[in-house]
Amino acid sequence: MENTKLIVSYPPYTKSKDSIEKVMYTVVFALLPAVVAAVYFFGLRALALIFVCSISAIGFEYLINVFRKQEIACFDGSALVTGILLALNLPSNLPYWMAVLGSFVAIVVVKQLFGGLGFNVFNPALAARVFLLISFPVAMTIWPIPFSVDMQTAASPLGILKTEGLKAANSITLWQAFIGNVGGSLGETSALALLLGSVILFWKKYITWIIPVSFVGATLAFTGIFHYMEPLKYASPAFHFTCGGLLLGALFMATDMVTTPVSKRGQLIFGLGCGLLTGIIRLFGGYPEGVSFAILIMNAFVPLLDKWDNYSNGKKWRLTKMRSVIVLTCIGFFSAFLLYMTDNITKEPIKKAIERVKVEALRQIFPFEFSDKDINIAFDKNGKEFFEIKNKDNSLRGIAVETSSDKGYGGEITILVAVSPDGKVFNYNVLSHKETPGLGNKIENEAFKKQFNGKTLDGFNWKVKKDDGFVDELTAATISSRAATDAVKKGLEVISNKYFVENKK
Amino acid sequence: MTILTPILILSALTFILGLCILLASKKFHVKSDPLIDTVILMLPGANCGACGYPGCAQFAEILVKTRDTSKICPVGGNDLSYELGRILGIKMDDAKPLSCIVLCNGNKTTTKFLADYKGIHDCWAVKEILPSVKQCAYGCVGLGSCVEACKYDALKIVDGLIKVIEENCVGCGVCIGKCPQHVLKLTEKKVKKYHVACSSVDKGAITRKYCTNGCIGCMLCVKACKFDAVKVENFCAIIDDSKCVNCGLCAKVCPVKCIHLTEYAMASKKIAVKKTDDNCGGCEMPCSVKGLGEDGTLGY
Amino acid sequence: MKTFKCGGIHPDENKFTRHLSIETMPMPKLLAVPLIQHIGKPAALIVKLGEQVKKGQCIANADGFISASIHSPTSGKIKKIENHPHSGGKFVKTVFIESDGREEWAEGLNTDEIDFKKLSLEEKLKRIKDAGIVGMGGAGFPTHVKLSPPKDKKIDTLILNGAECEPYLTADHRLMLEKTDEILKGLSIIASFFPDGLKIYIGIENNKPDAIKLMNEKASPLGFEVVVLKPLYPQGGEKQLINAITKRTVGNGQLPFDVGCMVNNVATAYAVYEAVCKNKPLIERVLTVSGMAIKNKKNIKAPIGTMFSDIVDYCGGIASRTMNLLISGGPMMGKAQYSFDVPVIKTTSGILFIDEIKLAEKKERPCLRCGRCEEACSVNLKPWLLSNLAQKDVERTLEYGLNQCMECGSCAFVCPSKRDLVHWIKYAKVMNANIKAIGATERQ
Amino acid sequence: MNAWKEFNKGIIKENPVLVALLGLCPVLAVTTTVINGLGMGLATTFVLLGSNIVISVMGKFIPSKVRIPCYIVIIASFVTIVDLLIQAFSPALNKSLGIFIPLIVVNCIILGRAEAFASRNKLWHSILDALGMGIGFTLALFLLSAIREILGSGAIFNIAITGNISPILIFVLPPGAFAALGFIIAIVIYFTKKSAEKNKGAK
What we know:
The complex is a heterotetramer of chains A (505), B (300), C (444) and D (203). With 505 residues, chain A is α+β, with helices and mostly antiparallel strands.
């Protein structure tokens, strides 16, 4: 019995069959549909590119292992996954040396310099893609069109959206984009292949469902809101779902275990953050594709998210506890949605109502009757609105204009002044004012308004009696009276500039 | 004349600002004893706590306030004490520099390994599942908890056993607490130093089974030592530093070669020793012949 | 089928010996009885070298409140008393008894069965204490201490733990099949310590259907309810079992009686029956001998103190030359041994002989932060964080619930990088205990 | 002769940029082309030399309470001299360096050397130290700008050399500057540590 050499280690002694190799090669297996789609759409050049990226990734990892005198771990699959993911992010006609440079940056700089597998902060493939995007902006933003023999190139759907606006981008049918028959990097185009590949990862629980769902959900919600606000200006969420790197990023990049938070709560915040940033960059940012930058930015927050979750004394948090936050965001979301819908519905009627009020006001200040048809709206040089009342024979019966004066006691007073064709004031009507009730608001009384009737601009000293003008101010509301007089005077001036000066010329 | 204006502006500006500095330096003057700062600068700054104080700053403060000559920084040793004495104007006692010794000699050749241990490389972690990686449950486990703790990298693992590098060891004693087997001990740094490299309390017969040069408690060394500096407590010999004169007789008689000599030429020259008339045979020549210093210290 | 709320893993069961009935092992020549086979202080020796002892005679008394007395498993002479390897991994003072083959019981012991209802509570507790009964599930907590909880704690639920979720082990399963009545009597003895109106459950995992059927027939007339549990490791843990059956959660730093529950192992109930009804001390126990590297796997009733080497000879010897793993207990919570002359003690629930090929080049890979250990942990901890902190800043591990960890091993089981999570957590516990101890000495 | 040591230490052993990590803002901002790098290096060396000379001469007279303002005034005047010279003699360099010439005033190297060295040592040593530090600074600038120009814009001294291979644009942008400087410093540390171990081992 003595010859048996017993090995002693600390319990437990049976371990699950899971290993790093199994995890990584399953991810590679999940990437196969995307690789097949890429080769189908972009030809053998795509396969060569993927091959170059993978081999150089593994090669660099091998060199680093030798240099750092570690045991050789370059065949544990993580280098292969990084290589393939990087290749799927590149246009198929990228020169090989750039792909090798990208692998170098991904493996040596982003992963090994930070300490190798498990210690890198940023997703290697993604950081390398951003490095290439910034270093070779030209080479990285022209995407060959699928099935094109002679490498014809065009901008990606998102590129078109960013440069030529929505009309051009709508030309691509959603189904084509979904299958992948549209310009873009190898892996981005066919959303179908990506979804197909990710099914195995979800089934074997190698990636969490929280990040992809919250990531895609947040992006669609964000772009959805803006799409509803201005359908002409912003593309529909479906467009954002199928085009660009959203699915590739959400399913394979954002779910890389090493660079994402460990806890569920951290992952939810991570996903939402990525979605939001992608939306912002895509709609308002400089680059058409926001997924890479969003994920890298959120990668930087991961230690913080972990620290925040760990700090809760390790209490396992279930989604229910996050209910308060989710409920709040939902309420915010729906109320915003509700407000938007009501605003949408009531936009027209409000406009009509304002018109009606204006017409009513016009009727009050003109001594003669006229029908709605007679009103004609004219604009002067700087876009000021004039209401002209026309006779049957199209001659001018009266002009009204909206002017305001901010010298009022309570603030701004806006009035609608009606003037006869020969420059005499008919009457005016106060549209809005904040004068003190009981004192300043007397400027709306007929008695005060009558004083202006028949006055012309140059014939009178448009001031209150106190400043030896013709207007006798309201008792204890001199400021309001002055403001009203000033507003009427302004109206007269504007009208006289438009109508009488032209006539005189 | 255009040259005049910049000169005027510049000098006016500097004048006013100079006044502000003068005012500020008067108002915000902080009284601090510059002596403490200089002492702090002189101390090694490792905050190792060997002097009994949590950090060098506290040590400096107390030293300057009390001017107590017995305060010693073992890391700095004699020359630092000498310097401190010169600055503080007092004669510091001789700092007895300490250094660490390992009371175990169970490396790969002398002892058999218990089992193929596959776990965390840390002495404390091993103790949870095994008495020790080696068959001797009392000796040094050899996985380096102490090596990590040592700031002066004075400890190194040599085929499964901790070896002390005398030059680097400053005697701060941080490693003593880090050893689960308590086989590290601080002793005075001497030119020649003997120590028993074993701490197994098993009976001799059992110790011999798992370690070729573990102490079997045969008492030969106790009989050989003329200064009764060696005594055996539960089957393991222990040398008392204060009495030992490093004559090396015990090492000669030890049947299992368990008493080891560490030589360190750089130790301070003054070594106190009692004069003995007859030749104890430890060092090569009789004491009377060797030039004994006036204060009875060996000359080498 | 009920189960606990969160965490848990599915190791493959390997219960090869579930159909083999219990065999009683012949008394070996030399027995090594260690003085510590339980949680608490080691027992104080009361016999001298060379003294003649009878079977069941007490050789070491319980020393202090939490301790248990030790009895001689056979009649014979005390051969030697020295430090000897112990299955817990440390050297422990062990009494070696050479059996004289007469198996002569000490007087007053091993009487035929008496009705436990006639005995008073104190009498029953004294018999359990004198018999040295400890929790046989693996912890080894003295039962007489457990049966006298603090006065203010009211116990309203008693659970018999027949879950046995550890792979390979089938001792409890066989015991439930072959000694059902004795176990139920033991359970009612335990129940008699608490006020009536006590709800009594028997938790059995679904992978033991025959035991469930048998227990149902025998237990329902006595008013005990059999609960079928989902086979999920660590279902057998106290906190998990209470949570599964009564939906109560034993919080951080709480004990089962804080939530009004009491959990006892099946083997403990059987030992209580034998102690109270037959006045027999705990000198033998049922354990499973299994694993690929042993010739024939068995469930055996072996006397306490039997050397593993004797059991190997009894079970036909080592099957494969490259066997490299000898475990005392289950593969999840048991401890690997480094030599064969280690004795069986009261808490040895099994001996496994495994030939693990991949164990030789087992190396720890970097943590992928995949979060599986967090999902597997049944007490809501973060093993990846605890093991990282244990290496960097040990004292902060206490903040993240280090002391709640019961080292069930689920996290290390699911870790794809095969990291020693449980070992680092145990390391953190030890270092924190040291720091506390040093702190205490400094304060004096 | 420790004078040589004073001069030599500035170049490699205590290189202000690569070892002491001083004055990094001009190093990162200006080194898009080699000409800029050299121009900046020489301008700073001139100012450093001038200020070291004046400060080491006047070292005793300046009371310690107002020493920093004095140093700054001295350095600032030298910087204005350099600024005027550059505007006079090479307007192109002035346009490309732009704000960074006046910024030399707050360059940590100059004030650092003045404070740590010039005010305490003799004139001759201060001059040597200034030259050593200046050349070390220029060397670092040259190294970094060479890398950034060759990789970033495929040219050297503004003459294109890489033909049709498109240059790696990131090196002309700030992230490239940080990365390149980081790598150079890493390599310097790696070699200094190695040589330190070698002669420690030898000892």
